[in-house]
């Protein structure tokens, strides 16, 4: 998979991609992530990427021209399955969307800033608008990093057996069951005996029951 991220703040985006699972995915050649600084697609001396909104009102708007240049240049080089715009008024990200995007080959992610982008960018280029929750961030960069993490860990070969995504919370619309590690008794708090029994069919059944119980207690909406 190839991901091209368009941003005015590429420096904000580096570190999540240079640690742990995302770093390993890049090193294994399973994902390529490219950052594009919108200011590199401006013409004037001031490298202007934003301007006041027509009709008045507080807040700057990202201009269409540099975004058009950047997206058009990328699209001339290869075909893209999606142009995603990170915005609080998009569709809220969930595991289903992450699964779907993990099957794509080439994806562009556009990060909004200030009051967002000129509406014509959304009309002309964007195929999907994604929010990571009902709150407003200063820009789309951290949201894009969250999206990339959720998607990249699902790419075949990124996770090994021990970290398999198949047992993740949300994978079957269920929360994951509780997990324990050594010691089996900590200050009188015991690990459930079944987990020490070695009876794997029974353990599997216990985990399913726990997942269901946890989901009905904490997130009954998922069971509807
Ligand atoms: N940009 C600002 N807030 C955002 C959010 N909640 N999700 C995605 N992009 C955003």
UniProtKB/TrEMBL annotation:
tRNA methyltransferase TRMD/TRM10-type domain span: 1-224
Q: Which GO terms describe its molecular function?
A: tRNA (guanine(37)-N1)-methyltransferase activity
Q: Which residues bind S-adenosyl-L-methionine?
A: 112, 132-137
The record, for Pfam families, names: tRNA_m1G_MT (PF01746)
Protein task? Specifically methylates guanosine-37 in various tRNAs.
Source organism: Flagellimonas algicola
Localization annotation: Cytoplasm
Domain of life here? Bacteria
Provide the family line.
Belongs to the RNA methyltransferase TrmD family.
Quaternary structure? Homodimer.
Name assigned to this protein: tRNA (guanine-N(1)-)-methyltransferase
* Reactions listed under catalytic activity: guanosine(37) in tRNA + S-adenosyl-L-methionine = N(1)-methylguanosine(37) in tRNA + S-adenosyl-L-homocysteine + H(+)
The coiled-coil segments of this chain are: none
UniProt keywords (A-Z) are: Cytoplasm, Methyltransferase, S-adenosyl-L-methionine, Transferase, tRNA processing
Q: What is its EC number?
A: 2.1.1.228
Q: Which NCBIfam families match?
A: PRK00026.1 (NF000648), trmD (TIGR00088)
A single BP term in Gene Ontology? methylation
């Amino acid at each position: 998979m190839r991901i091209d991220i368009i941003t005015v703040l590429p420096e904000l985006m580096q570190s999540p991609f240079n640690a742990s699972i995302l770093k390993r995915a890049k090193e294994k050649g399973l994902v390529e992530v490219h950052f594009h600084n919108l200011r590199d697609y401006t013409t004037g001396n001031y490298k202007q990427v934003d301007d006041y909104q027509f009709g008045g009102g507080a807040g700057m708007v990202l201009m269409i021209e540099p975004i058009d240049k950047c997206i058009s240049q990328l699209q001339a080089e290869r075909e893209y399955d999606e142009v995603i715009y990170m915005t609080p008024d998009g569709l809220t990200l969930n595991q289903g969307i992450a699964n779907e995007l993990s099957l794509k080959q080439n994806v562009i992610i556009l990060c909004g800033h200030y009051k967002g982008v000129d509406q014509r960018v959304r009309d002309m280029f964007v195929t999907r608008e994604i929010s990571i929750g009902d709150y407003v961030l200063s820009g789309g960069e951290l949201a894009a990093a969250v999206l990339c993490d959720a998607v990249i860990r699902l790419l075949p070969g990124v996770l090994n057996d021990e970290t398999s995504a198949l047992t993740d919370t949300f994978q079957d619309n269920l929360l994951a069951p509780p997990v324990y590690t050594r010691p089996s008794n900590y200050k009188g708090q015991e690990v459930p005996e079944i987990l020490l029994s070695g009876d794997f069919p029974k353990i599997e059944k216990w985990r399913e029951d726990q997942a269901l119980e946890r989901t009905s207690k904490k997130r009954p909406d998922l069971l509807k």
